[in-house]
Amino acid sequence: MRVDAVYENALVLTGETTTSALAVLHGRVVALGEDAEALSARRRVDLGGSVVVPGFHDAHNHMAWFGMSLDHVPLSDCRSVEEVYAAIARRAAELPEGSWVVGSGYDQNKLVGGHPDRHGLDRAAPGKLVQLRHTSGHMCVVNTAVLDRLDVANVPVGGDIVLDGDGSPTGLLREQAQRLLDPLTYPTPIETLVRGLDRASEVYLSEGITSVQEAGIGGGLVGESPAELAAYQLARERGLLRVRATVMVGAPVLHELSDGAGFGLDLGLRTGLGDEWLRIGPMKLFADGSLVGRTCAMHEPFAGEPDNVGYFQLPEDELARTIMRAHEAGWQIATHAIGDRAITVVLDAYEAALAAHPRADHRHRIEHCAVLQPDELARMARLGLIPSPQGRFVNELGDGMRAALGEERVAWCYRLKSLLDAGCVLPASSDRPVVNGAPLLALADMVRRRTSSGAPFGPQEALSPREALRAYTHGSAYAAFAENDLGTLTPGKLADFAVLSADPTDESTMDDARVLATAVGGELRYEAPN
Protein backbone atom coordinates (compact mmCIF):
# COMPACT_ATOMS: atom_id res chain seq x y z
CA MET A 1 0.00 0.00 0.00
CA ARG A 2 1.25 3.47 -0.91
CA VAL A 3 0.06 6.11 1.57
CA ASP A 4 -0.09 9.87 1.27
CA ALA A 5 2.36 10.63 4.08
CA VAL A 6 4.41 9.06 6.83
CA TYR A 7 5.35 11.24 9.80
CA GLU A 8 8.32 9.63 11.57
CA ASN A 9 11.13 10.10 14.06
CA ALA A 10 8.80 11.42 16.76
CA LEU A 11 7.35 10.59 20.15
CA VAL A 12 3.74 10.00 19.10
CA LEU A 13 1.26 10.07 21.99
CA THR A 14 -1.75 8.51 20.31
CA GLY A 15 -4.02 8.77 23.34
CA GLU A 16 -3.93 5.00 23.76
CA THR A 17 -0.24 4.15 23.38
CA THR A 18 3.16 5.66 22.57
CA THR A 19 4.88 5.05 19.24
CA SER A 20 7.37 6.55 16.78
CA ALA A 21 5.48 7.23 13.55
CA LEU A 22 2.09 7.46 11.89
CA ALA A 23 0.94 6.97 8.31
CA VAL A 24 -1.87 8.92 6.64
CA LEU A 25 -4.10 7.98 3.72
CA HIS A 26 -7.06 10.06 2.54
CA GLY A 27 -6.93 12.20 5.68
CA ARG A 28 -7.00 9.34 8.18
CA VAL A 29 -4.45 7.43 10.23
CA VAL A 30 -3.85 4.00 8.69
CA ALA A 31 -0.79 2.69 10.55
CA LEU A 32 1.48 3.41 13.50
CA GLY A 33 5.09 2.77 14.51
CA GLU A 34 7.07 0.21 12.54
CA ASP A 35 4.02 -0.61 10.43
CA ALA A 36 3.86 3.02 9.32
CA GLU A 37 7.60 3.31 8.73
CA ALA A 38 7.56 0.24 6.47
CA LEU A 39 4.98 1.70 4.08
CA SER A 40 5.72 3.34 0.75
CA ALA A 41 4.66 6.99 0.86
CA ARG A 42 4.30 9.91 -1.49
CA ARG A 43 5.80 12.09 1.22
CA ARG A 44 7.92 11.32 4.29
CA VAL A 45 8.28 13.90 7.03
CA ASP A 46 11.10 13.64 9.58
CA LEU A 47 9.84 15.30 12.77
CA GLY A 48 13.28 15.40 14.34
CA GLY A 49 12.38 13.83 17.66
CA SER A 50 9.50 16.19 18.43
CA VAL A 51 6.30 15.17 20.22
CA VAL A 52 3.03 14.48 18.40
CA VAL A 53 -0.34 14.64 20.20
CA PRO A 54 -3.92 14.42 18.93
CA GLY A 55 -5.18 17.79 17.76
CA PHE A 56 -6.65 19.86 20.56
CA HIS A 57 -10.43 20.08 20.55
CA ASP A 58 -11.94 23.10 22.31
CA ALA A 59 -15.34 21.94 23.59
CA HIS A 60 -16.74 25.43 24.28
CA ASN A 61 -15.53 28.55 22.48
CA HIS A 62 -16.96 31.51 20.60
CA MET A 63 -15.02 31.41 17.37
CA ALA A 64 -16.76 34.16 15.42
CA TRP A 65 -16.89 36.49 18.43
CA PHE A 66 -13.20 35.89 19.09
CA GLY A 67 -12.19 36.52 15.50
CA MET A 68 -14.17 39.74 15.31
CA SER A 69 -12.87 40.89 18.71
CA LEU A 70 -9.38 41.06 17.25
CA ASP A 71 -10.49 44.36 15.71
CA HIS A 72 -11.75 45.74 19.05
CA VAL A 73 -9.80 47.89 21.48
CA PRO A 74 -8.04 45.33 23.74
CA LEU A 75 -8.77 46.00 27.41
CA SER A 76 -7.69 42.80 29.18
CA ASP A 77 -4.35 44.27 30.27
CA CYS A 78 -5.86 47.44 31.73
CA ARG A 79 -5.49 47.75 35.49
CA SER A 80 -7.59 50.87 36.17
CA VAL A 81 -10.65 52.50 34.71
CA GLU A 82 -8.45 55.44 33.69
CA GLU A 83 -6.36 53.07 31.55
CA VAL A 84 -9.60 51.86 29.94
CA TYR A 85 -10.68 55.41 29.17
CA ALA A 86 -7.25 56.24 27.74
CA ALA A 87 -7.33 53.20 25.43
CA ILE A 88 -10.79 54.17 24.20
CA ALA A 89 -9.71 57.78 23.69
CA ARG A 90 -6.77 56.69 21.51
CA ARG A 91 -9.00 54.64 19.23
CA ALA A 92 -11.73 57.31 19.17
CA ALA A 93 -9.21 59.93 17.99
CA GLU A 94 -8.62 57.85 14.84
CA LEU A 95 -12.30 57.64 13.86
CA PRO A 96 -14.80 60.08 12.34
CA GLU A 97 -17.74 61.59 14.21
CA GLY A 98 -20.55 59.12 14.87
CA SER A 99 -18.36 56.01 14.61
CA TRP A 100 -18.59 53.01 16.91
CA VAL A 101 -15.73 52.43 19.32
CA VAL A 102 -15.87 48.88 20.67
CA GLY A 103 -13.59 47.57 23.40
CA SER A 104 -13.36 43.99 24.66
CA GLY A 105 -12.00 42.10 27.62
CA TYR A 106 -12.24 44.38 30.65
CA ASP A 107 -12.72 42.77 34.07
CA GLN A 108 -13.86 45.02 36.91
CA ASN A 109 -12.21 42.66 39.40
CA LYS A 110 -8.83 43.67 37.98
CA LEU A 111 -9.50 47.40 37.63
CA VAL A 112 -8.83 50.09 40.18
CA GLY A 113 -12.16 51.89 40.14
CA GLY A 114 -14.34 48.90 39.25
CA HIS A 115 -16.62 49.10 36.23
CA PRO A 116 -16.15 51.95 33.76
CA ASP A 117 -19.21 54.17 33.42
CA ARG A 118 -20.92 56.21 30.74
CA HIS A 119 -19.62 59.53 32.01
CA GLY A 120 -16.00 58.43 31.70
CA LEU A 121 -16.69 57.09 28.21
CA ASP A 122 -18.41 60.36 27.25
CA ARG A 123 -15.23 62.23 28.17
CA ALA A 124 -12.98 59.72 26.41
CA ALA A 125 -14.90 59.57 23.13
CA PRO A 126 -17.09 62.65 22.56
CA GLY A 127 -19.23 62.36 19.46
CA LYS A 128 -18.76 58.58 19.23
CA LEU A 129 -20.87 55.52 20.07
CA VAL A 130 -19.02 53.41 22.65
CA GLN A 131 -19.54 49.85 23.84
CA LEU A 132 -17.20 48.00 26.20
CA ARG A 133 -17.73 44.23 26.31
CA HIS A 134 -16.96 42.64 29.66
CA THR A 135 -14.56 39.70 29.44
CA SER A 136 -17.38 37.32 30.43
CA GLY A 137 -19.67 38.49 27.64
CA HIS A 138 -22.45 38.75 30.22
CA MET A 139 -22.44 42.52 30.49
CA CYS A 140 -21.29 45.63 28.71
CA VAL A 141 -20.91 49.35 29.34
CA VAL A 142 -22.15 51.96 26.88
CA ASN A 143 -21.80 55.72 26.77
CA THR A 144 -24.64 58.24 26.91
CA ALA A 145 -24.90 58.51 23.12
CA VAL A 146 -25.73 54.80 22.94
CA LEU A 147 -27.89 54.78 26.06
CA ASP A 148 -30.06 57.56 24.61
CA ARG A 149 -30.83 55.31 21.62
CA LEU A 150 -32.02 52.35 23.73
CA ASP A 151 -35.56 51.46 24.82
CA VAL A 152 -34.59 51.41 28.49
CA ALA A 153 -38.23 51.23 29.58
CA ASN A 154 -38.50 47.70 28.20
CA VAL A 155 -35.63 45.68 29.69
CA PRO A 156 -36.00 41.98 28.78
CA VAL A 157 -36.61 39.40 31.51
CA GLY A 158 -33.29 38.02 32.75
CA GLY A 159 -31.33 41.26 32.63
CA ASP A 160 -31.03 44.68 34.22
CA ILE A 161 -29.61 48.17 33.79
CA VAL A 162 -27.45 49.15 36.75
CA LEU A 163 -28.32 52.47 38.39
CA ASP A 164 -26.18 54.82 40.43
CA GLY A 165 -27.05 56.25 43.84
CA ASP A 166 -29.25 58.89 42.21
CA GLY A 167 -31.23 56.34 40.24
CA SER A 168 -29.59 57.18 36.90
CA PRO A 169 -28.15 54.51 34.57
CA THR A 170 -24.40 54.04 34.92
CA GLY A 171 -24.21 52.63 31.39
CA LEU A 172 -23.76 49.03 32.63
CA LEU A 173 -26.15 46.58 30.94
CA ARG A 174 -26.21 43.09 32.43
CA GLU A 175 -27.26 39.80 30.85
CA GLN A 176 -30.39 40.04 28.67
CA ALA A 177 -30.42 43.84 28.96
CA GLN A 178 -27.67 43.73 26.35
CA ARG A 179 -30.35 42.72 23.83
CA LEU A 180 -31.50 46.34 23.94
CA LEU A 181 -28.53 46.97 21.64
CA ASP A 182 -29.91 44.67 18.94
CA PRO A 183 -31.65 47.42 16.91
CA LEU A 184 -28.26 49.18 16.67
CA THR A 185 -25.88 46.24 16.17
CA TYR A 186 -27.78 43.10 15.09
CA PRO A 187 -27.42 41.24 12.80
CA THR A 188 -23.69 41.17 12.13
CA PRO A 189 -23.06 41.15 8.35
CA ILE A 190 -22.21 37.69 7.01
CA GLU A 191 -18.95 38.89 5.46
CA THR A 192 -17.85 40.29 8.83
CA LEU A 193 -18.51 36.90 10.40
CA VAL A 194 -16.58 35.11 7.64
CA ARG A 195 -13.60 37.39 8.22
CA GLY A 196 -13.80 36.66 11.96
CA LEU A 197 -13.79 32.90 11.32
CA ASP A 198 -10.81 33.29 9.01
CA ARG A 199 -8.80 35.22 11.59
CA ALA A 200 -9.76 32.87 14.41
CA SER A 201 -8.72 29.85 12.32
CA GLU A 202 -5.23 31.27 11.93
CA VAL A 203 -4.82 31.66 15.68
CA TYR A 204 -6.28 28.25 16.47
CA LEU A 205 -3.96 26.38 14.13
CA SER A 206 -0.95 28.19 15.61
CA GLU A 207 -2.00 26.77 19.01
CA GLY A 208 -2.52 23.17 17.88
CA ILE A 209 -6.32 23.43 17.85
CA THR A 210 -7.83 21.36 15.04
CA SER A 211 -11.51 21.25 16.02
CA VAL A 212 -13.90 23.35 18.10
CA GLN A 213 -17.45 23.58 19.33
CA GLU A 214 -18.98 27.00 18.74
CA ALA A 215 -21.08 27.73 21.83
CA GLY A 216 -24.10 29.42 20.31
CA ILE A 217 -25.16 30.70 16.89
CA GLY A 218 -28.28 32.15 15.34
CA GLY A 219 -29.91 33.74 18.36
CA GLY A 220 -29.86 34.37 22.07
CA LEU A 221 -27.23 36.16 24.09
CA VAL A 222 -24.30 35.02 21.90
CA GLY A 223 -25.90 34.77 18.46
CA GLU A 224 -24.48 37.20 15.90
CA SER A 225 -26.98 36.72 13.03
CA PRO A 226 -30.12 34.66 12.31
CA ALA A 227 -28.21 33.37 9.25
CA GLU A 228 -25.00 32.64 11.15
CA LEU A 229 -24.62 29.10 9.86
CA ALA A 230 -24.31 30.59 6.38
CA ALA A 231 -21.11 32.33 7.49
CA TYR A 232 -19.62 28.98 8.51
CA GLN A 233 -20.65 27.43 5.20
CA LEU A 234 -19.16 30.33 3.21
CA ALA A 235 -15.95 30.22 5.23
CA ARG A 236 -15.64 26.51 4.56
CA GLU A 237 -16.35 26.90 0.82
CA ARG A 238 -13.65 29.55 0.57
CA GLY A 239 -11.10 27.53 2.52
CA LEU A 240 -11.19 29.99 5.42
CA LEU A 241 -12.68 27.63 8.02
CA ARG A 242 -9.48 25.72 8.61
CA VAL A 243 -10.52 23.86 11.77
CA ARG A 244 -13.46 21.49 12.15
CA ALA A 245 -16.52 23.04 13.78
CA THR A 246 -19.55 21.72 15.61
CA VAL A 247 -22.02 24.56 16.13
CA MET A 248 -24.46 24.86 19.01
CA VAL A 249 -27.77 26.42 17.97
CA GLY A 250 -29.22 29.11 20.26
CA ALA A 251 -32.45 27.95 21.91
CA PRO A 252 -34.45 31.03 20.77
CA VAL A 253 -34.03 29.82 17.15
CA LEU A 254 -35.86 26.54 17.82
CA HIS A 255 -39.65 26.37 17.54
CA GLU A 256 -42.54 23.95 17.24
CA LEU A 257 -42.64 22.31 13.83
CA SER A 258 -45.70 21.25 11.86
CA ASP A 259 -46.90 17.71 11.13
CA GLY A 260 -45.74 16.37 14.46
CA ALA A 261 -42.06 16.94 13.67
CA GLY A 262 -41.47 18.18 17.20
CA PHE A 263 -39.28 21.03 18.40
CA GLY A 264 -36.42 22.16 16.22
CA LEU A 265 -35.30 24.04 13.14
CA ASP A 266 -37.20 24.31 9.87
CA LEU A 267 -37.06 21.15 7.75
CA GLY A 268 -36.71 19.22 11.02
CA LEU A 269 -32.96 19.82 11.30
CA ARG A 270 -31.38 18.82 14.60
CA THR A 271 -28.21 17.58 16.30
CA GLY A 272 -25.96 15.50 14.04
CA LEU A 273 -26.58 16.97 10.59
CA GLY A 274 -23.36 17.71 8.72
CA ASP A 275 -20.02 16.12 8.02
CA GLU A 276 -16.52 15.89 9.48
CA TRP A 277 -15.89 19.61 8.82
CA LEU A 278 -19.13 21.31 9.87
CA ARG A 279 -21.96 19.85 11.93
CA ILE A 280 -25.00 20.94 13.90
CA GLY A 281 -24.41 20.10 17.55
CA PRO A 282 -26.49 20.77 20.68
CA MET A 283 -29.17 23.29 21.39
CA LYS A 284 -27.52 26.00 23.54
CA LEU A 285 -29.60 27.34 26.41
CA PHE A 286 -28.78 29.94 29.07
CA ALA A 287 -29.97 29.26 32.62
CA ASP A 288 -28.10 32.06 34.40
CA GLY A 289 -25.24 34.51 34.10
CA SER A 290 -21.68 35.11 35.24
CA LEU A 291 -19.74 34.32 38.42
CA VAL A 292 -17.18 37.15 38.19
CA GLY A 293 -20.03 39.47 37.20
CA ARG A 294 -22.08 38.22 40.18
CA THR A 295 -25.21 37.56 38.11
CA CYS A 296 -25.30 33.73 38.21
CA ALA A 297 -28.10 32.10 40.23
CA MET A 298 -26.88 31.06 43.69
CA HIS A 299 -28.46 29.29 46.66
CA GLU A 300 -26.71 31.69 49.04
CA PRO A 301 -25.69 35.33 48.47
CA PHE A 302 -22.42 36.45 46.97
CA ALA A 303 -19.71 37.34 49.46
CA GLY A 304 -20.19 40.85 50.76
CA GLU A 305 -23.58 41.26 49.01
CA PRO A 306 -26.23 39.82 51.34
CA ASP A 307 -29.08 40.80 49.03
CA ASN A 308 -27.57 39.42 45.82
CA VAL A 309 -28.17 35.77 44.87
CA GLY A 310 -28.04 36.44 41.13
CA TYR A 311 -30.87 35.56 38.79
CA PHE A 312 -32.01 33.31 35.96
CA GLN A 313 -31.92 34.28 32.28
CA LEU A 314 -35.49 33.03 31.84
CA PRO A 315 -38.24 31.75 34.14
CA GLU A 316 -37.48 28.37 35.69
CA ASP A 317 -40.64 26.75 34.28
CA GLU A 318 -39.76 27.94 30.77
CA LEU A 319 -36.25 26.56 31.19
CA ALA A 320 -37.67 23.15 32.16
CA ARG A 321 -40.18 23.18 29.27
CA THR A 322 -37.50 24.01 26.73
CA ILE A 323 -35.26 21.20 27.95
CA MET A 324 -38.17 18.74 27.91
CA ARG A 325 -39.21 19.64 24.35
CA ALA A 326 -35.67 19.61 22.96
CA HIS A 327 -34.88 16.29 24.62
CA GLU A 328 -38.11 14.74 23.33
CA ALA A 329 -37.26 15.94 19.80
CA GLY A 330 -33.85 14.24 19.86
CA TRP A 331 -31.56 17.21 20.44
CA GLN A 332 -28.40 17.07 22.45
CA ILE A 333 -28.72 19.94 24.95
CA ALA A 334 -25.97 22.20 26.28
CA THR A 335 -27.23 24.39 29.12
CA HIS A 336 -25.14 27.23 30.52
CA ALA A 337 -25.37 26.98 34.33
CA ILE A 338 -22.77 28.57 36.60
CA GLY A 339 -24.35 29.20 40.00
CA ASP A 340 -25.23 26.27 42.28
CA ARG A 341 -28.91 27.24 42.27
CA ALA A 342 -28.93 27.22 38.44
CA ILE A 343 -27.21 23.84 38.38
CA THR A 344 -29.83 22.39 40.74
CA VAL A 345 -32.67 23.63 38.54
CA VAL A 346 -31.01 22.35 35.36
CA LEU A 347 -30.36 18.94 36.93
CA ASP A 348 -34.03 18.78 37.94
CA ALA A 349 -35.04 19.58 34.36
CA TYR A 350 -32.72 17.00 32.81
CA GLU A 351 -33.83 14.36 35.31
CA ALA A 352 -37.49 15.02 34.54
CA ALA A 353 -36.87 14.89 30.77
CA LEU A 354 -34.96 11.62 31.02
CA ALA A 355 -37.64 10.09 33.21
CA ALA A 356 -40.42 11.10 30.82
CA HIS A 357 -38.54 10.09 27.66
CA PRO A 358 -35.67 7.70 28.43
CA ARG A 359 -32.88 7.97 25.89
CA ALA A 360 -29.57 6.17 25.86
CA ASP A 361 -26.38 8.09 25.10
CA HIS A 362 -28.01 11.52 25.16
CA ARG A 363 -24.76 13.32 26.11
CA HIS A 364 -26.60 16.33 27.52
CA ARG A 365 -24.20 18.89 28.91
CA ILE A 366 -23.90 21.57 31.56
CA GLU A 367 -21.74 24.37 30.21
CA HIS A 368 -19.28 25.76 32.80
CA CYS A 369 -20.90 23.81 35.65
CA ALA A 370 -19.02 26.20 37.91
CA VAL A 371 -20.31 26.00 41.49
CA LEU A 372 -21.14 22.32 41.91
CA GLN A 373 -22.18 21.10 45.33
CA PRO A 374 -21.13 17.56 46.37
CA ASP A 375 -24.63 16.03 46.25
CA GLU A 376 -25.24 17.49 42.81
CA LEU A 377 -21.95 16.08 41.53
CA ALA A 378 -23.16 12.56 42.31
CA ARG A 379 -26.52 13.22 40.65
CA MET A 380 -24.81 14.58 37.55
CA ALA A 381 -22.78 11.41 37.16
CA ARG A 382 -25.82 9.21 37.75
CA LEU A 383 -27.74 10.98 34.98
CA GLY A 384 -24.86 10.54 32.51
CA LEU A 385 -24.43 14.28 32.02
CA ILE A 386 -21.29 15.90 30.64
CA PRO A 387 -19.84 18.88 32.52
CA SER A 388 -17.98 21.45 30.43
CA PRO A 389 -15.70 23.48 32.76
CA GLN A 390 -12.84 25.75 31.67
CA GLY A 391 -9.44 25.01 33.20
CA ARG A 392 -7.96 28.38 32.29
CA PHE A 393 -10.61 30.23 34.32
CA VAL A 394 -8.83 29.35 37.55
CA ASN A 395 -5.78 31.34 36.46
CA GLU A 396 -7.31 34.36 34.76
CA LEU A 397 -10.56 34.69 36.74
CA GLY A 398 -9.79 32.78 39.95
CA ASP A 399 -9.14 35.76 42.20
CA GLY A 400 -12.42 37.36 41.12
CA MET A 401 -14.29 34.08 41.58
CA ARG A 402 -12.87 33.67 45.08
CA ALA A 403 -13.97 37.21 45.96
CA ALA A 404 -17.49 36.47 44.70
CA LEU A 405 -17.86 33.14 46.50
CA GLY A 406 -15.96 33.54 49.74
CA GLU A 407 -13.40 30.97 50.80
CA GLU A 408 -15.84 28.29 51.97
CA ARG A 409 -17.30 27.74 48.46
CA VAL A 410 -14.07 27.77 46.46
CA ALA A 411 -13.76 23.98 46.86
CA TRP A 412 -16.95 23.57 44.80
CA CYS A 413 -15.77 25.81 41.97
CA TYR A 414 -14.69 24.56 38.55
CA ARG A 415 -14.20 20.99 39.68
CA LEU A 416 -12.10 18.67 37.52
CA LYS A 417 -10.67 15.66 39.37
CA SER A 418 -13.82 14.96 41.36
CA LEU A 419 -15.85 14.87 38.12
CA LEU A 420 -13.54 12.23 36.71
CA ASP A 421 -13.59 10.28 39.96
CA ALA A 422 -17.41 10.35 39.92
CA GLY A 423 -17.40 8.71 36.49
CA CYS A 424 -18.14 11.72 34.26
CA VAL A 425 -16.46 12.17 30.89
CA LEU A 426 -14.55 15.44 31.15
CA PRO A 427 -14.04 17.68 28.10
CA ALA A 428 -11.75 20.71 28.13
CA SER A 429 -12.47 24.13 26.73
CA SER A 430 -11.63 27.83 26.94
CA ASP A 431 -14.84 29.87 26.46
CA ARG A 432 -12.59 32.08 24.35
CA PRO A 433 -12.49 35.07 24.10
CA VAL A 434 -13.45 35.18 27.78
CA VAL A 435 -9.88 34.04 28.57
CA ASN A 436 -6.79 33.16 26.55
CA GLY A 437 -7.69 29.99 24.67
CA ALA A 438 -4.25 28.47 24.07
CA PRO A 439 -4.56 24.81 25.14
CA LEU A 440 -0.98 24.50 26.39
CA LEU A 441 -1.66 27.29 28.89
CA ALA A 442 -4.88 25.58 30.00
CA LEU A 443 -3.17 22.21 30.44
CA ALA A 444 -0.74 23.76 32.92
CA ASP A 445 -3.62 25.44 34.78
CA MET A 446 -5.56 22.18 35.00
CA VAL A 447 -2.52 20.58 36.63
CA ARG A 448 -1.47 23.45 38.92
CA ARG A 449 -4.76 25.16 39.90
CA ARG A 450 -3.33 28.56 40.80
CA THR A 451 -4.78 32.02 40.24
CA SER A 452 -2.92 34.84 38.50
CA SER A 453 -1.89 36.12 41.94
CA GLY A 454 -0.31 32.73 42.67
CA ALA A 455 -2.92 31.60 45.21
CA PRO A 456 -4.01 27.93 45.19
CA PHE A 457 -7.58 27.44 44.00
CA GLY A 458 -9.13 24.10 44.91
CA PRO A 459 -5.86 22.17 44.55
CA GLN A 460 -7.68 18.89 45.28
CA GLU A 461 -9.29 19.28 41.82
CA ALA A 462 -5.94 19.22 39.98
CA LEU A 463 -5.49 16.71 37.15
CA SER A 464 -2.41 14.80 36.15
CA PRO A 465 -0.84 16.01 32.89
CA ARG A 466 -2.12 12.90 31.09
CA GLU A 467 -5.66 13.46 32.39
CA ALA A 468 -5.54 17.08 31.24
CA LEU A 469 -4.38 16.10 27.74
CA ARG A 470 -7.08 13.44 27.49
CA ALA A 471 -9.71 16.03 28.43
CA TYR A 472 -8.53 18.37 25.63
CA THR A 473 -8.61 15.55 23.07
CA HIS A 474 -10.77 12.50 23.72
CA GLY A 475 -13.06 14.12 26.31
CA SER A 476 -13.94 17.04 24.07
CA ALA A 477 -14.46 14.80 21.05
CA TYR A 478 -16.84 12.64 23.10
CA ALA A 479 -18.83 15.70 24.12
CA ALA A 480 -19.38 16.44 20.41
CA PHE A 481 -20.35 12.86 19.44
CA ALA A 482 -17.08 12.87 17.47
CA GLU A 483 -14.95 10.31 19.31
CA ASN A 484 -15.22 7.88 16.39
CA ASP A 485 -13.29 10.38 14.26
CA LEU A 486 -11.32 12.51 16.71
CA GLY A 487 -9.60 12.46 20.08
CA THR A 488 -6.94 9.78 19.49
CA LEU A 489 -4.41 9.04 16.76
CA THR A 490 -5.37 5.45 16.04
CA PRO A 491 -6.03 3.71 12.72
CA GLY A 492 -9.31 4.84 11.22
CA LYS A 493 -9.39 8.20 13.00
CA LEU A 494 -8.91 11.55 11.27
CA ALA A 495 -5.24 12.52 11.13
CA ASP A 496 -5.54 15.75 13.13
CA PHE A 497 -2.50 16.39 15.29
CA ALA A 498 -0.16 18.94 16.83
CA VAL A 499 3.62 18.71 16.75
CA LEU A 500 5.15 20.01 19.98
CA SER A 501 8.66 20.86 21.13
CA ALA A 502 8.29 18.96 24.42
CA ASP A 503 6.08 16.38 26.13
CA PRO A 504 3.02 18.05 27.71
CA THR A 505 2.27 14.95 29.79
CA ASP A 506 5.53 15.33 31.74
CA GLU A 507 5.17 18.08 34.34
CA SER A 508 8.94 18.69 34.26
CA THR A 509 8.82 19.58 30.54
CA MET A 510 5.27 20.81 29.96
CA ASP A 511 6.29 24.47 30.33
CA ASP A 512 8.76 23.99 27.46
CA ALA A 513 6.12 22.72 25.06
CA ARG A 514 5.27 25.00 22.16
CA VAL A 515 3.48 24.27 18.90
CA LEU A 516 5.85 23.58 16.00
CA ALA A 517 3.23 22.49 13.48
CA THR A 518 -0.43 21.55 13.19
CA ALA A 519 -1.98 19.06 10.77
CA VAL A 520 -5.64 18.67 9.85
CA GLY A 521 -6.51 15.57 7.87
CA GLY A 522 -2.82 14.73 7.65
CA GLU A 523 -1.95 18.01 5.91
CA LEU A 524 0.28 20.52 7.68
CA ARG A 525 -1.87 23.67 7.94
CA TYR A 526 0.52 25.56 10.22
CA GLU A 527 4.27 25.54 10.72
CA ALA A 528 5.94 27.81 13.26
CA PRO A 529 8.42 30.32 11.87
CA ASN A 530 12.06 29.45 12.51
Describe it:
With 530 residues, the protein is an alpha/beta fold. It contains 15 helices and 27 strands. The strands form 6 sheets. The chain has a 7-stranded parallel β-sheet. Helix 3 packs parallel to helix 4 (118-124), helix 9 (316-328) packs parallel to helix 10 (340-356) and helix 14 (439-448) crosses helix 15 (465-479). The longest helix is centred in the middle third of the chain and has 17 residues, at 190-206. It is globular and about 80 Å long. It starts with a strand and ends with a strand. The model has no long low-confidence stretch (mean pLDDT 97).
Write the layout of secondary structure elements.
Elements: E1 2-3, E2 5-8, E3 11-13, E4 18-19, E5 22-25, E6 28-32, H1 33-37, E7 40-41, E8 44-46, E9 51-54, E10 56-61, H2 63-69, E11 73-74, H3 81-92, E12 100-106, H4 118-124, E13 129-134, E14 139-142, H5 144-147, E15 159-163, E16 169-175, H6 182-185, H7 190-206, E17 209-217, H8 228-237, E18 244-250, E19 255-256, E20 263-264, E21 278-286, H9 316-328, E22 333-337, H10 340-356, E23 365-368, H11 374-382, E24 386-388, H12 393-405, H13 417-422, H14 439-448, H15 465-479, E25 497-500, E26 515-520, E27 523-527
Parallel strand pairs: 1-7, 2-8, 3-9, 10-17, 11-12, 12-13, 17-18, 18-21, 21-22, 22-23, 23-24
Antiparallel strand pairs: 2-5, 3-4, 5-6, 9-25, 13-14, 14-16, 15-16, 19-20, 25-26, 26-27
Helix pairs in contact: 2-7, 3-4, 7-8, 9-10, 14-15
